[in-house]
Amino acid sequence: MSGSALFTEPLFFIMNGELDGLKGSDMNGDLKEVLTAVQEGAMTIEDAVLEIKKAPFEDLGYAKPDTHRSIRQGAAEVIYGAGKTTEQILGIITLMQEKGQDRILITRLSAEAAEEIRKTCPMEYHPEARLGILGETQERSGLGKIVVATGGTSDIPVAEEAAVTAEFYGNEVVRLYDVGVAGLHRLLSHMDDIMGASVVIAIAGMEGALASVIGGLADCPVIAVPTSVGYGASFEGLSALLSMLNSCAAGVSVVNIDNGFGAGFLANRINHMEAK
């Protein structure tokens, strides 16, 4: 069920004077009070929508899935797989599906956990990205292309997390791998892709210079992702992070070390923004 469907159903009953039609649904008493207030004219529709956006979560004891996140943010909650047992992940999946979420993204999912989950429910697993996908990938709806570029081959796992995340949300992704500054001509051979992108995700470890170079070439937002790739003085990505934060190229933003998901999600948001 889409985020809009979650609150268009109660509004349908309000407009038709059939508030009793909510009986048997997942709407709780507080929400029915809000809808009754709208029906009686004691609350505006705008205030009701605000209250619905603040609506509840489900308590599983070990987790509290946010079942109304799609209403507030336009995208449902994503499961972070690292540190969770297979049983916990399956419990969260079951609840999400019961609440009508037919497309689920699981990040940082180990191959072992993925194998166990697939015994219970169909799931597409991307081992390099460590992402699990339940349900169909959304049809392409982005305004343009998202380019995912890496400094080296060792950065590809983080890049795949970003790329598959962006594809999951309905974006066309162009991958440019191993185009780092040690051989700048490799990047320059893809200028059409860089200049034609609506968003570029620049992923690099070592000194993290790729983001600044792309930021100086592209006319679109650049999302920089430092990776933990590098020798001792790279401090597991801290050196690249600081370099990217200190970029002199305008239009470069930075996410956390190895956070391919965060970059892919942000790129998706940018690629779906329409001019106001």
Which short descriptors sum up this protein?
single chain, 276 residues, alpha/beta, five-stranded parallel sheet, four-stranded mixed sheet, 12 helices, 9 strands, disordered N terminus
Q: Order of helices and strands, N to C?
A: HHHHEHEHEEEHEHHEHEHEH
Task: Let me know the largest β-sheet.
Answer: 5 strands, parallel
Biggest sheet, spatial arrangement of strands: 6-5-7-8-9
What is the residue-averaged pLDDT?
83
Low-confidence stretches: 1-28
End-to-end distance: 27 Å
The share of residues in extended strands comes to 5-15%
Helical stretch count?
Answer: 12
Could you say which structural class the secondary elements and strand pairing correspond to? alpha/beta
Quick gist of this model?
The protein is of the alpha/beta class. The chain is 39% helix and 14% strand.
